[in-house]
Amino acid sequence: MAAAPGGYFGRALVIDVSDGSSRVLPLPEQVLRDHLGGVGLGTWLLTELGPPGVDPLAPEAPLAFVFSPLVGTPLTTSAKFAVVAKSPLTGLLTDALASSHFAISGKLTGHDALVLVGRADRPSVVTVEGDRVGVLDGSAEWGRTAAEAEASVRARLGPGWQVASTGTAGERGVRFATLSHDGRHAGRGGLGAVLGAKNVKALAVHATTKVAPADPAGVLAAAKDLRERSRGRATAKYRELGTMANVLAFNALSTLPTRNFSAAVFEGAPQLAVEELSQAREVVKTSCASCAIGCEHLYKGPKNKDGTGRKVRMEYQNVSSLGPMCGVSDPDLVIAASALCDDLGIDTISAGGTIAWAMECAERGLLDADWLRFGDGEAVLRALREIGSGEGLGPLLALGSRAASAVVGQGSEAFAAHVKGLELPGYEPRTMQSMALGMAVNARGADHNRSGAYEADLSGDLDRLAGGADHVRGAVEAEDRSAVMDSMVLCKFLRGVFEEPFEQWAVLLRLVTGWDLTADELRATAQRIVLAKRAYNLREGWQPSDDWLPERFLSEELTVGSGRTAALSPARLRSMISAYYAARGLDDSGRPLS
Amino acid sequence: MPATGAVVLAGGRSTRMGAPKAALEWHGSTLLRRVVGLVQRGVDGPVVVVRAAGQDLPRLPSSVDVLDDETVAAGPLQGIATGLGALQGAAEHAVVCSTDLPLLHPAFVRAVARAGQDADVALPVVAGHRQPLAACYRTSLAGRARQLLAQDRPRPAFLLEDADVRVLDELALLGDPALAKADPALASVTGVNTPEQYAALRALPPPEVVVQRFGVLASGGDHGERTVRAATLAAAAQAVGLVLDRHLLAAVNGDQMVRDPELPLAQGDGVAFLSADAGG
User: Fold this and answer.
1) Who contacts B185 (Cβ-Cβ below 8 Å, separation ≥6)?
2) Does domain A230-423 bear CATH number 3.40.50.300?
3) The pTM is what?
4) A111, A518, A540, B116 — which has fewest CB within 10 A?
5) In what residue span(s) does the MobA-like NTP transferase domain sit (chain B) (predicted)?
6) Which CATH architecture has domain A11-206?
7) Model pLDDT for residues B181-204, shown as the tens digit of each residue
8) Using only C-alpha atoms, what is the Rg of chain B?
């Protein structure tokens, strides 16, 4: 086999957890060049290895941990990995990124991806050290939180092992269960449930080799330059306050989802404002592996079971979904809810979105749960506990808002805030109409990281309340940029330091891989990845009606601070979607022309 | 509501001023840029500027179309005909303003635009003076305006003769709570025609606006609202120690995201400054 390009091993390891067998899947250079790594390569792997129409929780369904050429280099924010699978929440492709030493150790097992298939006959822990695969008894870790399981496996295996685990929600098949490592989560789409369905609690990896970039000196110089730039103003927001800085700003812009998207301004937002909390509370700042930005802000949370103090990672999406979306303004309860999501191993966005939908159902008398009311933070905690335990409303809410609304019916589908089954993040589509399109058409569903179209809405270059051609262009460009960043992989919070992103990303990839990459080739790669995700979804049963927004957003108006009305008509959304399809080379129904 | 556009007339001869009014300095911006920006905030449709053919204009937002008067020195009715004609099809009504209204308030524009929805013309009358160059017209009046010009009847008053005119006196105008709060003296219609008038109005303090800073712009305990005097976005930023660059964005009254330093501010505006990157 020809030598792999710089930064790659040119192979994936496919592990059948049913019997611990494994095989090496060669990754041809053209496949790597066409898909890079991370989300792009993961999409290719899923398409190649996943049986068409497979049940996401079936043994045959692959779960891919995918690295990238940049992992292991000194380039800041590059220690990231993608987890890609068919989502039990959406029935379509899901891909989630996490940042930690797991990425580095996982790649330095000598593989560009580790793919799990099959189902173990008992709760297990899978280990990978080079080409050696083990399937160990995981009964000691089963029933424990992801953090506890991670610590337990590390204690058993010894130093040098990195462990990605699911919490109890993954074991129970909660459709929005996460995969975690070192407190970081591959959060969206229910990847933890896919792992749990394989009877696997955790995947442990141990580095055994090294990988060299094509131009080590060039990479070192680029890393130094990037590190310097990553400490500038472009990242100050993340470094100094973290993403929670969005809360008060979004409230002022009428873009803060409130009480299940029935409003976009939350009267309790000042109580959740990081500008205040960071002054009044003990906050510890930290960062992911290989990151010079340091966006993580840990707040004092509820005590651990053993009475010791605990710090909780707080980010805008946690706060938005478990706070304003549920009408909760008490910061202690929002922090406690975030901590509980971490313990259970569930996605805060989907959890908050589903609970907010249930609160509205309860207030409308569609659910028999008089304890579940907007504004009641204790009710949020109870609902989360029930999701985790499978008691009370838990089995219903564990389905996510789309499936739960199909059970409840009675018109509740109209205010179940999801796209393709994935709950909306903290961006109000009526007052961010590029983002409305981005969420409607994105392969993963209602998502901010794969679309990124909010960048256009907040650019100052267009009227964010009046979606049209400029918004389509903005959504396409943002989606392309995301496709490349998520496949290289680099953290989105670094994007502001790239003034000519495709040109500068091509330089980084040239130094690492040795390829004669150009910005134009990278733009074509971005489009290829976006379309590959769509092609996978088509194969798995995507329908044109999946590229749409819930009725609430198309029938209820909002008013922004200036007095202007923010309305998104079905005709306007349809027009933007048609223009998006045209820009992507799709036919009128969203299918590839060729 | 059908879209309401706007026409800003910049082609006057400025005889009494002795210099083109459109280019007069106004707190770091220009008179025309200010009026265009304030009118834009009061309507939901396109805005056009009508100038004399070949006239140099100060920098304007790229969203504004600039049209040339079809006839040289034919007076404001020519500009009205050109502007309304250009907007036909895109807007049913248009607020028409002259370029010499530096105290114009968006609330005034909105009030006049709203009153114009069920009439051919909504005509403010302030202190007994009719204000045809701060009024709202049905765009279909473009044809009638051209007829009048062809008949050598070039004054806007002739356009009102056969039209369904809704007169807006002070009582009617100030019946709009937003306008009553923002511009109780109806200074919006104060024109600038002579160097002395210009000097007097230019000497007035800039409007009072409330500034809020968010995120890292407000860290270090420097958060909360602050009232400053600023006629433009750049001046508001400067008043709170900020510099408008690619890392900074603003929103006026919670509406559009803006970063144009010359964006005009009006009395009572709220300006929010935030980091340009809203990821999370």
Assistant:
1) none
2) no
3) 0.94
4) A518
5) 6-155
6) 4-Layer Sandwich (3.60)
7) 999 999 999 999 999 999 999 999
8) 19
